[in-house]
Write a sequence for this structure.
């Protein structure tokens, strides 16, 4: 009897489904293992994990030396998947990322063969992405949105899970090219990397200046991450929670009736529909990480800052006054009331 055939009279075996409790347990194991290498920064690790489990991408912003690159390397070790790092520089070309056709000799004939670039990995670190020119930055657009690369009219799919984690220095530093809005919008979350506390600095020095450096071990596989991503999509969300996410996004637009005074005065453009998708998707994963299989208003509110801070475009007055997009998002959360449930 074939191994996939159920015995006569017995019901066919249901496909394996990951339980919400197993999701939270596996995620905690990933966070704990990453914590063996990354000191503190629990919120940073949590939000990066949310981006990975959402089958999307994360942009990290912070000054050099805060462990952004080490975080991505550690996550790749912990989930036991392929990892490539691309150091973005002003002379980097799009083909250096996506790959290109090269001329090779086979059986006495010369043919073109596609040579994959570093984008063909499960985890891709785009290090200092804002140091490359916009032409090179745009080479990531198709890969991040459609999980494929097109070269010479041929499409090459990217193996799941596919996760781009880009790092950038603050835009006021020299030698950088600000990311265009279309590129920013493809990142599910933008996470700010804070400077560690003095207690964490002591632990960092102990771990990095001693004889033995801590090493992270695999606690999940790429297939398990894909399974967790599928479960995250299946989390139900009540209509009034979805309506609240839509209201928050709508309030980022200065011409919307829900927009608070700070938005009307200082915002040029609000977030795209991807912003609402980010609120809902991140809310679902935050609920699962908390051991719940339903999304709450607090989950959406917790996702608002990283999901919207890079999607709100300030006007000239806002830039001149030094208004931050974080302040704009917080004002929206303060003034947009959750819908009442009948």
């Amino acid at each position: 009897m074939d191994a996939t055939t159920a015995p006569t009279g017995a019901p066919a075996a249901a496909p394996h489904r990951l339980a919400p409790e197993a999701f939270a347990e596996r995620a905690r194991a990933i966070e704990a293992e990453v914590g063996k290498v990354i000191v503190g920064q629990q919120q940073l690790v949590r939000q990066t994990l949310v981006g990975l489990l959402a089958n999307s991408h994360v942009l990290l912003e912070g000054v050099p030396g805060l462990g952004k690159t080490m975080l991505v390397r550690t996550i790749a070790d912990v989930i036991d998947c392929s990892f490539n790092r691309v150091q973005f520089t002003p002379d980097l070309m799009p083909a250096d990322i996506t790959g290109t056709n090269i001329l090779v000799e086979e059986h006495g004939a010369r043919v073109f063969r596609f040579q994959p670039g570093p984008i063909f990995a499960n985890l891709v670190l785009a290090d200092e992405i804002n140091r490359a020119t916009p032409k090179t930055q745009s080479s990531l657009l198709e890969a991040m949105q459609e999980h494929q690369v097109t070269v010479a009219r041929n499409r090459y799919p990217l193996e799941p899970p596919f996760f781009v984690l880009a790092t950038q220095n603050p835009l006021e530093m020299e030698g950088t090219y600000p990311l265009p809005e279309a590129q920013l919008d493809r990142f599910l979350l933008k996470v700010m990397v804070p400077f560690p506390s003095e207690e964490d600095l002591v632990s960092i020095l102990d771990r990095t200046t001693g004889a033995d450096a801590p090493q992270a071990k695999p606690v999940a596989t790429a297939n398990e991450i894909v399974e967790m991503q599928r479960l995250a999509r299946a989390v139900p969300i009540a209509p009034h929670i979805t309506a609240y996410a839509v209201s928050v996004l709508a309030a980022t637009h200065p011409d919307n009736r829900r927009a608070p005074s700070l938005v009307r005065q200082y915002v040029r453009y609000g977030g795209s529909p991807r912003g609402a998708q980010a609120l809902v998707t991140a809310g679902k994963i935050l609920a699962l990480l908390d051991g719940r299989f339903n999304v709450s208003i607090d989950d959406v509110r917790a996702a608002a800052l990283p999901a919207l801070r890079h999607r709100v475009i300030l006007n000239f007055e806002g830039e001149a006054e030094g208004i931050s997009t974080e302040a704009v998002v917080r004002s929206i959360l303060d003034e947009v009331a959750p819908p009442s449930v009948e």
